[in-house]
Specification:
The protein is an alpha/beta fold. It has two domains: 175 residues, Rossmann fold (3-Layer(aba) Sandwich); 200 residues, 3-Layer(aba) Sandwich (Rossmann fold). It is 35% helix and 23% strand. The protein is built from 14 helices and 20 strands. Strands 8, 11, 12, 13, 16, 17, 18, 19 and 20 form a nine-stranded mixed β-sheet that branches. Strands 2-1-3-4-5 form a five-stranded parallel β-sheet, with helices on both faces. A two-stranded antiparallel ribbon has the order 6-7. The protein is elongated. It binds cytidine-5'-triphosphate. The site of cytidine-5'-triphosphate has 16 residues, from α12 and β16. Cytidine-5'-triphosphate binds next to α12 and β16.
Length: 404
């Protein structure tokens, strides 16, 4: 695989901190680049010097020291995985509540890398309903919880809450990094958002799509190492990651921008809500209500972008190996419509979801059905679009493994 992968090891206050020193070494043994960040409590158990000596890097300890102020956020953005080990009950609560009150939590909020936590605490704290709720919240956001084990606790008592075995933490970290690079070398083309078909210089035909789902897929695939090209209709939303972004307005522009990339695409995801029709002859001047014919709207059919891209990709070299994914936004009979679109548009998969004025669009949760020739998946969700994106990427693997 390419460059060395980077782990941000966040160490919080627990007697198990001493085990994190060994963990840092074991991660480095696997050729990982380890940057340690410590909470104030952690520093009362072990000094940053220990980790500095082990990793050869200054430890991030504060948001406020002059030299590190900006650096911690950059390191957060830089890391390929965030590993909080040991994660105290307090750190888990702060992460679950989205606080940004120290280097660890601020980094967790600013980074898009996968987050893993290896809890260590007294049994009563681990089993407390507050901790249970916080852990479930984190799990629902896709955080990997490396479950604590049962046995002698550092306090001398015995029970559940023991820091997981170092080798299990290393394995979980490597697995998260493997997922992260699982799309490396893959070229992904995503269409997303609505289209806007002008009637005159101030009005047009459009729809309620925000592009949130397609943007989430683009960001998640970028995080997994894909080369992502996002062709995005008019929306206030933007991708968070460094994908190649092409902002377009009309269906014709969306098709043209997509055609420039499609021959190289290994996976095509058409999530855009394309206007089926456009005004046949948009007016150059603003149409007045008194204008002749202002009460009728002659329309013509837009190209079907997905069908055109699928046909073109299939005909180009390597086309048989490309994975083509359509969306079906329906108000009823989800599975039936999705199956019909699968066949009509030459797709390998159709992601079907129910839409209406109060569901399917925007940043809220969504529920999808992934339909292939083999049939539909179990419904997935309701879940956040970022989480649905991970679900889809796990299943829309490129047909040929292009990893080096
Ligand atoms: N699509 C497209 N170009 C169009 C219309 C649709 O690329 N002109 C794509 C969408 O991006 C989506 C799939 O086709 O992946 C299904 O879109 P949808 O609007 O649900 O279906 P339509 O083909 O427009 O059919 P209908 O409106 O009759 O349900």
């Amino acid at each position: 695989m390419g460059a060395t992968q980077r782990v941000l090891l966040g160490v919080s206050g627990s007697i198990a901190v001493y085990k994190a020193a060994d963990l840092a070494r074991r991660l480095m043994d696997r050729d990982l680049d380890v940057q340690v960040a410590m909470t104030h409590s952690a520093q009362r158990f072990v000094t940053p010097l220990t980790f500095r000596a082990l990793t050869g890097r200054p430890v991030l300890t504060s948001l406020w020291s002059e030299s590190q102020e900006i650096e911690h956020v950059e390191r957060g953005y830089d890391a390929d995985v965030l590993l909080m080990a040991p994660a105290s009950a307090n750190l888990i609560a702060r992460l679950a509540n989205g606080l940004a009150d120290d280097v660890l939590t601020t980094t967790a909020l600013s980074s898009q890398a996968p987050l893993l936590i290896a809890p260590a605490m007294e049994t009563n704290m681990w089993l407390h309903p507050a901790t249970r709720t916080n852990v479930s919240t984190l799990k629902s956001r896709g955080v990997v919880v490396i479950e604590p084990t049962s046995g002698a606790l550092a306090s001398g008592r015995s029970g559940l809450g023991r820091f997981p075995e170092t080798q299990d933490i290393v394995q979980a970290t490597l697995a998260a990094l493997g997922t992260r690079s699982s799309w490396s070398g893959v070229v992904l083309l995503v269409t997303a958002g609505p289209t806007f078909e002008p009637l005159d210089p101030v009005r047009g035909l459009t729809n309620r799509s925000t592009g949130a789902m397609g943007i989430a897929i683009a960001d998640a695939a970028h995080a997994r190492g894909a080369e992502v090209h996002l062709v995005l209709g008019p929306t206030a939303l933007s991708p968070r990651s460094g994908v190649h972004l092409y902002r377009v307005e009309t269906a014709a522009e969306m098709l043209a921008a997509s055609e420039a990339i499609v021959d190289r695409a290994d996976v095509i995801v058409a999530s855009a809500a394309v206007s089926d029709f456009r005004p046949a002859s948009p007016s150059v001047q603003k149409v007045k209500k008194t204008s002749a014919g202002a009460d009728t709207l002659p329309l013509e059919l837009n190209p079907d972008i997905l069908t055109a891209l699928a046909a073109r990709r299939r005909a180009a070299p390597g086309g048989a190996r490309a994975t083509i994914v359509g969306f079906a936004a329906e108000t009823s009979a989800l599975e039936k419509h999705a199956k019909a679109k699968l066949a009509q548009k030459g797709c390998d998969f159709v992601v079907a979801n129910l839409v209406g004025p109060d569901r399917g669009f925007g940043p809220q949760e969504t529920e999808v059905l992934l339909v292939s020739k083999q049939g539909p998946s179990e419904p997935h969700g309701p879940a956040r679009k970022a989480e649905v994106a991970e679900f889809l990427l796990d299943r829309l693997r490129p047909k040929e493994d292009k990893r080096s």
